[in-house]
Amino acid sequence: MILYPAIDLKGGECVRLLRGEMTAATVYNPDPASQARAFQDSGCAWIHVVDLDGAFAGEAVNGAAVRSILSAVDVPVQLGGGIRSRAHIDTWLEAGISRVILGTVALRDPELVIAACRDHPGKIAVGIDARDGKVAVEGWAETSEITATDLALKFEDAGVAAIIFTDISKDGAMEGPNLAATVDLAKAISTPVILSGGVSSMKDIEEVKAAEVPGLDGAISGRAIYDGKINVADAMNVLKG
Question: Which of 18, 74, 111, 180 has the fewest CB atoms within 10 Å, measured from its CB?
Fold first, then answer.
């Protein structure tokens, strides 16, 4: 399993939101590139980046910050937030992003996801963010009627590199992840699943590892790392077993 330390970008700074509320943002580092270097120096294998402003705008807003991260590190970076067209996908992959995360467009235009997977093998992930089990899109501002599992099943044979599953109610709340729902999703599909939202302690990391579900690929954590509750190197060692 892999630990994905998170950099969420708002106004060019590293922030964390509480349950997806843009008005409940805490700034942790005004310099995303230095934060990315710190994660790399801690031994992380990947960095998870989200353009929060982009998720609402439907296009890149923190592009300069993302590029500064790419220039600062050698480890692979996965990026989500506002990537909703083939041009967006191609631009970021050409810029050096190792994996783009498609969220809103996965619900709105699944054929685009399928085509992108065909043309960019291993470089397309689908972000599924759920509120009460239903998929939320447009920066979590809208909740659909489709369940997370039903959306994930649409891409079973598409070649998606990973499903990144977030329980919005847990995100940034430091109350622990919705491991049960994530495990259920991992059991229901063949695509690897990455847990996101609420991973707030080493105990949570240990429980993710202990789940030992085939297809559960790793976990994303943000606030707990910034607050010092999770040490990146220690967490990676636990997940590696």
Answer: 74
Q: Both tokens of residue 137?
A: 């899109």
* 129 annotated active-site: yes
Answer yes or no: 8 catalytic.
Answer: yes
Q: Which of 51, 90, 119, 129 is catalytic?
A: 129
Q: What is the pLDDT of residue 232?
A: 95
Distances (CA, A) of 77 to 22, 91, 95, 107: 23, 14, 11, 23
Q: What is the pTM of this model?
A: 0.93
Which stretch of DSSP H or E encloses residue 226?
helix 223-226
Helix, strand, coil percentages (3-state) for the chain, rounded to 5, are 40, 30, 30
Give CA separation, 195 vs 51, 58, 105, 113, 200, in Å.
19, 24, 20, 20, 12
| pLDDT digit string, tens, across residues 133-165 | 889 877 566 788 899 999 999 999 999 999 999
CATH 3.20.20.70 fits 2-240, yes or no: yes
Q: Would you give the distance in Å from CA 16 to the centre of its chain?
A: 13
Residues 60-95: pLDDT tens digits? 999 999 999 999 999 999 999 999 999 999 999 999
Quick one: pLDDT at residue 172? 58
**Catalytic one among 8, 53, 167, 204?**
8
